[in-house]
């Protein structure tokens, strides 16, 4: 037998014989209602089909139990991994996550921040676009809500808590490895739009200088409209290989998405990157993109600790929400990368 469908709390009140104010208290916090009444409500709910309005039950709470997350790309599996770790940590803390994507557009990122402010979420975790993010909007967000940056820390937001990767350590780690096993690597960079890319490029140059080698950076200019990741890596190395350059060289790519394009360019020219004892083409990346083990050849890279980043970001936002932070200076937490040796380098 089908249950009676209930659409509003007023209808529910009539159907199970409990006043609307009591039902409102029950859905906000059942501990505010007497145990006998709780049992009566639950018995009534079992007889009907009713789903309480998620936002309505939170209107009068001091806390909505919601945190907002803004990520820059939906088609990037690195951010999928990071979002998964945030959601797991948030669920364990009894929070609900609402995610917005900026689609690499500062105006959309700003609108997402405004949306979270209008929703009175308890706090916001933001993986920003970089220095071209709308600083005024983020300053307003920080003044209204607990706010923590993840993955990228623009110079325009020095006073915001940040959780991310120690790019000097992670990039230095793979530069040292590549220098041990073959020719010192060239660095396949990106057009100047990605904050982490610039940090890794700087870390590459610093480590090469420290080791006594001459840095060589390629791919800093956009070679085709809309080509920033896989397309960029493929286009840059396709042109270099066509001129006979870098075919017997180690190439460190700024991230795994660029490296995927680089591996494709190698295949087009009949080249197979590999961990040869001496000489030969090697291609490596950074991030440990989920598809890296399944490329041919499997991609050597440096893994970012997305689980730790997500868990720490949620932990920090909870500390701020609960009023447990007394030091006004920003807390910066950096996690080391881990070398993942596979077939390509």
TrEMBL record:
It comes from the Bacteria. It comes from Sulfitobacter donghicola DSW-25 = KCTC 12864 = JCM 14565. GO terms for molecular function: DNA-binding transcription factor activity; transcription cis-regulatory region binding. Residues 8-51 form the HTH cro/C1-type domain. Keywords: DNA-binding, Transcription, Transcription regulation. This is HTH cro/C1-type domain-containing protein. InterPro entries: Cro/C1-type_HTH, HTH_LacI, Lambda_DNA-bd_dom_sf, Peripla_BP/Lac1_sug-bd_dom, Peripla_BP_I. SMART domains: HTH_LACI (SM00354).
């Amino acid at each position: 037998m089908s249950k009676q469908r209930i659409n509003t709390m007023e209808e529910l009140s009539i159907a199970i014989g409990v006043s609307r104010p009591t039902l409102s208290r029950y859905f906000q916090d059942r501990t505010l209602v007497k145990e006998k009444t709780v049992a009566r409500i639950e018995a009534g709910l079992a007889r009907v089909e009713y789903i309480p309005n998620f936002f309505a039950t939170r209107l009068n709470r001091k806390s909505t139990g919601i945190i907002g997350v803004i990520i820059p790309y939906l088609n990037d599996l690195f951010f999928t991994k990071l979002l998964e770790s945030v959601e797991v940590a948030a669920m364990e803390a009894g929070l609900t996550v609402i995610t917005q994507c900026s689609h690499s557009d500062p105006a959309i990122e700003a609108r997402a921040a405004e949306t979270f402010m209008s929703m009175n979420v308890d706090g916001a975790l933001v993986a920003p676009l970089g220095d071209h993010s709308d600083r005024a909007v983020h300053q307003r967000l920080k003044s209204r809500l607990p706010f923590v940056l993840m993955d990228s820390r623009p110079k325009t937001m020095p006073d915001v808590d940040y959780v991310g990767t120690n790019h000097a350590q992670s990039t230095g780690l793979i530069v040292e490895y590549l220098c041990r096993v073959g020719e010192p690597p060239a660095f396949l960079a990106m057009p100047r739009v990605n904050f982490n890319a610039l940090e890794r490029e700087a870390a590459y140059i610093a480590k090469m200088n420290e080791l006594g080698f001459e840095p060589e950076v390629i791919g800093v200019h956009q070679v085709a409209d809309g080509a920033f990741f896989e397309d960029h890596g493929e286009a840059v190395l396709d042109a270099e290989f066509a001129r006979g350059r870098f075919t017997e060289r180690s190439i460190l790519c700024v991230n795994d998405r660029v490296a995927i394009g680089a591996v494709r360019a190698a295949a087009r020219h009949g080249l197979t990157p590999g961990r040869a004892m001496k000489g030969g083409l090697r291609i490596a990346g950074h991030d440990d993109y989920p598809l890296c083990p399944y490329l041919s050849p499997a991609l050597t890279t440096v893994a970012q600790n997305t689980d730790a980043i997500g868990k720490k970001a949620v932990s920090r936002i909870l500390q701020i929400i609960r009023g447990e932070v007394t030091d006004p200076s920003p807390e910066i937490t950096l996690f080391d990368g881990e070398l993942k040796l596979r077939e390509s380098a």
